[in-house]
Amino acid sequence: MPIIRTELYIRAPRELCFDLARSIDIHAESTAQTREKAVAGITHGFIELGQSVTWEAVHFGIRQRLTAKITEFERPWYFVDEMVSGAFKRFRHMHEFKSAAGGTLMIDVFDYTSPLGMLGSMADKLFLENYMKKFLVQRNEYIKQTAEKTALNENWQQ
User: Fold this and answer.
1) What angle do CA 150, 142, 49 make, to 5 degrees?
2) Strands 52-59 and 62-74
3) 102, exposed or middle or buried, with CB in 10 Å at 0-12, 13-18, 19+?
């Protein structure tokens, strides 16, 4: 059961970072390398508490679908999405946003269990955990770039 934790400082207001992180459209843009697109549930705009989205993407050369639901939501401090169906045995992904030095500290905690028991545990150690961390970091960097550009263009101040 790997737990991946990332922290990223963003020079933008917490509210903006929070909304970008829950934007279906920004998620799709930030995961272009896996051709990720929303195909069911909320497919555009901002996802809210109790809503779900089904993503279709290509990982490891295999087209996959994953449905996640927002199970906790307190704007603009945090939200949690959990897998309803998909390739993992389970996952819980917490997105937290803290005001910090004129910007926002965005914290992601991705807690998951791979399928297939011992084989899944071996896959985690060999490649999956690193793959997932890289995937999350790339997505978060995209959010950072978008938030900072938006904040600068709109002259946001915190």
Assistant:
1) 85
2) antiparallel
3) exposed
Q: Name the DSSP letter for residue 32.
A: G
Q: What is the spatial distance between Cα 91 and Cα 25, in angstroms, rounded to a whole number?
A: 22
The predicted pLDDT at position 156 comes to 57
Give the domain ranges of the chain.
3-153
Quick one: average pLDDT of 123-135? 91
Dump pLDDT digits (tens) for 53-85: 999 999 989 999 999 999 999 999 999 999 999
Select the CATH number that applies to the domain covering 3-153 from these four: 3.40.50.2300, 2.20.25.90, 3.90.226.10, 3.30.530.20. 3.30.530.20
Helices (H), the chain: 14-21, 24-30, 117-123, 129-153
